Predict the 3D structure of the following.
Amino acid sequence: MNRLARTTSPYLLQHADNPVDWWPWGPEAFEEAKRRDVPVLLSVGYSACHWCHVMAHESFEDRATAEFLNEHFVSVKVDREERPDVDAVYMEAVQAATGQGGWPMTVFLTPDAEPFYFGTYFPPEPRHGTPSFRQVLEGVRAAWADRPGEVAEVAGKIVRDLAGREIGFGSTQAPGEAEIAQALLGLTREYDAQRGGFGGAPKFPPSMVLEFLLRHHARTGAEGALQMAQDTCERMARGGIYDQLGGGFARYAVDRGWVVPHFEKMLYDNALLCRVYTHLWRVTGSETARRVALETADFMVRELRTAEGGFASALDADSDDGSGRHVEGAYYVWDPAQLREVLGDDDAELAARYFGVTEEGTFEHGRSVLRLPQQEGVFDAERLESVRGRLFAARAGRPAPGRDDKVVAAWNGLAVAALAETGACFDRPDLVEAAAGAADLLVRLHLDEHARLTRTSKDGRAGANAGVLEDYADVAEGFLALASVTGEGVWLEFAGLLLDHVLARFVDAGSGALYDTADDAEQLIRRPQDPTDNATPSGWSAAAGALLSYAAHTGSEPHRTAAERALGVVKALGPRVPRFIGWGLAVAEAWLDGPREVAVVGPSLDDEATRTLHRTALLGTAPGAVVAVGAVDGDEFPLLEGRPLIDGGAAAYVCRNFTCDAPTTDPERLRTALSS
C-alpha cells in the first residue's frame, strides 16, 4: 500500500494506488533521498485541478515512468491546499525562474530541499517545444549523476536569491486618500468596460477588488466605483461562469466574456462572491444581486456542507460523461437534443433562447454552457421557473463531479462570514445556523487548547498540518461576523484568541510585517511572506482587517496599531498593483471610515424594537462597520458597556474610536447614520 493511503488529503489519496512510490512531505522523504543520494521530485497540486488529473493519468499511472522514478528519485506529493507554505515557497522559485507558474507544479530538489529545476505540466511526449516528462526525468538524472557540482551551484544560487526577497513595504502607516485615488485610477485603466472585470483571458472573478469598490463608493459616493462593481457582477451573473441552474460560481472563465468556465467550483470563490453580491444588494437593492447571493449560499449549503457541519473545499471540473470517460464540464453542458429530451419541443425552444444553447454550441462537441444572453423581461417568468426546475432535476441524474471533502480552516472562515451576513440581510436564519455549525466545527476540531489552529480536517479527523496566517485571519473574520449577527459574545472571544496568536507568532516585532507561517513552524528554505491576493485575500491583508475589526469591538490599541502597521504594504503596493491587493484596499477603506462601531441595546434580544435596530445596523453600508447587540445588562461586548436604554426601550449608538453620536431609537435615523 502506498504511503499516501495513510493521509487525510483527498488529493493525496487520489494517488495512493499509483505505481509511483510516493512519499508525503516530511523529513523522512528527504532523509531517504540523502541515504540513496538521489534528487527529490516534488509534485504539487490539488484535487479539483484538471491538469493534475491529466498528468497523473498520463505519467504517474504509467508503470514504465513509475519504475524510472522509483529507481532514480524520491517522489514527494503535496496537496497545495493542505500545505500552502510549501506551495508558496516553491511556486515563487518556479515563477522567478520561468516567468510563470501553475498546477501541477513540478520541481526537482536536492536532498536538502533546495530547488534546481522547475516546471508545471509535462506531457507524455514532446509538444510545442515542451519536452516530455520522461525526457525531463532523464535530463535531471543525468545532470545529478554527471554534473553534481553544477546542480549544487544552481540550487545554492536559487536559495540565496529567494532569501533576498524579503518584503520591503516602506511604511508603517495606512494609505491615505492619495494612495486610494491612485489605486482607483489604476483599476479604471485596467477595467474591461465591454465585458466587466479586469484584464483579458482567462478571467477570474475579482472578488476582493469588488469589495474595495463597494466600500469606496459607500465611503465617498464615487459612482464610477459602484458602476464597475455593479456591471462586473451583472455580467458574471449572466455568464457561463455562474451556474444558471444550481447557483454558485466556477473558478474562472477561459474567455474574456465569462462564457465558458473552467468548471471546478471552489468554496472560497463562492464564499467571497456570496458576500460581494449581498453587499451589492445592500447598496442598490438589485434583484439580481439578491438572487445570486441566495442561490450561491444555497449551493454552498446543499452541495458543499459536510456531515460534520463544515464545508468541503471543492467540486471537480471533470465528471463521467455517461460513457465511462471523465470529461471536463460534462455535468453542466447541454445541447438542443438534450433540452428536447427533458422539456419537449416547445419548452426546449424557449430554454435554448433563454440560456443561449445553439446547434454549434459554445463549448466542445456542440454543447453549450448555460448563460443568460438576453434580458429576462421578454420571457414568461413562471414558465421559466418550471423549465429551470426540470433541467436542474434532470441534471441531478447525471454522474456528479467528485467532491474534495477536506475542510480548510481559512475557507470555512470565509464561508462563516458570508453565510452569517447573507442570512441576516435576507432574513434566512437557516443560513446563520449553517454558519454557526461550521464555526462550531472549527472550534471543536481545528482549535486546540493553546488557541492554535489546524489547517484541515476530513471526516471529523483533524489533519497534521499547522494553520497558516490566512487560517487565523479568515477564521477570526468569520467569528467576528458571526458575533455581530448573533449577538453571541463567545465568537468575539474566540476571534481574540486567534488574533493574539497572530500578534505573538506571525508579526515581525521590528517592522510590523507579517509572515505566512508562525515563527515556530517548520523551517523551509525561506519563510513565506506574500501580501498580495491570489484566489483568496492574502493572509497579510486578512489579518489587518480582522485586527482592525477586533480593535473596533474592544478598543484594543495593540490590535489597532498592528492593523495600521500591516496596512503600510497597501500604501506601497495599492497605487502600483491594485488588482492584486484588493482586500488590503478594502481594509484601508474601513480604516479611513473609522471603522464605525454600532452598539444596539435593548431589554432583550427578543424585543421587536431591538431586532429592528439590529437588522438596520447590519444593513448599513459603512465600510467595515462592526455591530454589537445585547441586553442592557449584558456584558458580552465591550461596545455595550455604559450604553443605557432610552426611556426603557431599545437604542442604537454609532461611534468612531469609542466616541459616539447621540443615541437613536429610530431605525431611519440609524440607517442614515450608517450610509453617509
The longest strand covers residues 596-602. The two ends are 63 Å apart (CA to CA). DSSP finds 24 helices and 19 strands in the chain.
